[in-house]
Every structure is written in C-alpha cells, then in structure tokens.
Design a protein that fits this description.
about 270 residues, alpha/beta, Rossmann fold, 10 helices, about 40% helix
Length: about 270
C-alpha cells in the first residue's frame, strides 16, 4: 500500500514510454526502414541520447539504464564516415528518433528546465542550399511522412518541419545566417569539412568551418548545456581538414583497427 502511494508521488515525465532504437527504425508502426549495421545503430544511439540518467533507469532498469547513460550521453559527436557509409541516412534516422523521444515527454521544455511550451529547435546545416534541400531535408521529410506514428503531429514548411510541443527541425546551410534566434537543442554540421577553411573576405568572423562550429557550439551550450548536442558529420577531404583537426584535438588515445577484404573478380 505504501509503495503504491510512493509510485503515485513519483514524477513521471513521459506521456508515452519510448520504444528502443531497433523497434523505432524497423517497425512499420514507426519508420519501417531496413536493418542498420551495428555501427550505424551505435551512432544513432549516441546522437539521440537526450534523457536524464534517472529516467533511463526507470525505462531500462538500473544496470542497463546506467550503462546506456554512461556510454551514449555525449554533447559532441565527431563522425568521420567515408563515402558510401550511409551517413546522410543515419543522420535523418537519428534526428527522427530525437524528435520522437522529445514528443514522448509530457512537456519537453519543462523537462529541460525551460518555460512550459518553450521552443526546442534542431538544425541540420549543409554546405549550400542545394545540399540542404536535396540531401538531409528530403530524406528526413520522407521518413516522417511515411511513418504512421508521426501522422497528425507535424506541419511541413519549405525548409522546416514544425512538430507538436513547439519542436521544429530546420534545414539550413552555411551560406546564410541560419540559426539566429533559434532555441537550439541539436545542431548537425553536415559535411563540415566541405565548408570554407579560410576567410576570403578579410572578415575574421567569416563563415569558415571553425567559425561555424564555434557559433553553433556556443548556441547549444547556452541553451541546453547538459543534454544538447553538436554533431560533426563528414568524410575527411584531406589530411588535416577541419573534422580531422577537431578529432585529433579531443581524442588523446586512439584505437586503430585495420580491416582488409579480398574481392573475387568475376572475369
């Protein structure tokens, strides 16, 4: 009887218990996408871990919730992924999962210490307008439109999708000021190594990869310092490009795994 009383007093932040990542990706009730590789699932988990430890324990149990929090809670992800790795697909899946997990909360703004109904914004920043429209936004919008779970919970615009509970996903690009005034919870800097490496205008605040990174890093940190995320996503263009430099600056001990495969050529 007393335990039942304590259960009633316990604060529950969820309107719906979120499903695990594999169910979200593969079930026809959600995204209905093909099975991802183990590495791809790891990336999606890290990009989408947005809950507090005590809530993960409530959902997953003490051992698994604690393990999940320790392994996947990151405020910055540096994803150097080669061509053909499916990085754009992974990014759209992860952003959809973040939005889903936000919508499972009763009030996402209150959960993160903001006023009730306050905006929560997510942005994908591409190199140019064409990439912004044809790569991320096209793939993200398609997944949302095909998902039964998201039906009736969103309103698509030209370069953004507005969801219930004041959640908005924007498709921006480095050629314009795309984040001014946003309450940024997550920023994905897409193909960051393709952004300019030097300022051609003489303006030290110009739109180089480094300046763009610092601007978004500062914005996310000021709004959501604990669970907000900045994701650097790119294949390395050359030795010492921006994503390589950023990786080297934060990873002291590197584990290098080399894999080889011999293909049989059918003449």
């Amino acid at each position: 009887m007393f335990n039942d009383f304590l259960e009633v007093l316990k604060e529950n932040h969820f309107i719906e218990t979120p499903v695990d990542v594999k169910t979200f990706v593969q079930s026809p009730d959600y995204l209905g996408q093909p099975l991802l590789s183990d590495i791809q699932y790891e990336i999606v988990e890290a990009m989408s871990q947005i809950y507090r430890k005590e809530d993960l324990i409530e959902i997953m149990g003490d051992v698994e919730g604690s393990r999940h929090f320790a392994k996947y809670t990151k405020n910055e992800l540096i994803l150097q992924l080669g061509k053909g790795s499916g990085k754009d697909f992974i990014s759209t899946v992860a952003c959809a999962y973040v939005v889903y997990k936000l919508l499972c909360l009763k009030d996402p703004a209150i959960y993160y210490g903001k006023p009730a109904g306050d905006a929560i914004d997510i942005i994908n920043v591409a190199v140019n307008a064409q990439q912004a429209k044809n790569v991320f936004f096209k793939g993200f919008k398609s997944k949302i439109e095909r998902s039964p779970w998201f039906a009736g919970k969103y309103n698509p615009k030209a370069d953004s999708i507005e969801f219930d509970k004041s959640i908005t996903v924007y498709s921006g690009h480095s050629e314009r000021e795309s984040h001014e005034g946003l309450n940024l919870f997550m920023a994905v800097l897409d193909e960051i190594s393709g952004f300019a490496s030097e300022v051609a205008t003489g303006n030290e605040q110009g739109k180089t990869a480094d300046n763009i990174y610092k601007a978004f890093r500062g914005t996310v940190d000021s709004r959501f310092p604990d669970l907000g995320k900045v994701v650097l996503l790119s294949f390395p263009r050359y030795q010492g490009d921006f994503i390589s430099q950023r990786y080297d600056s934060v990873i002291a001990d590197k584990e290098v795994i080399e894999r080889t495969h011999r293909f049989i050529i059918n003449e």
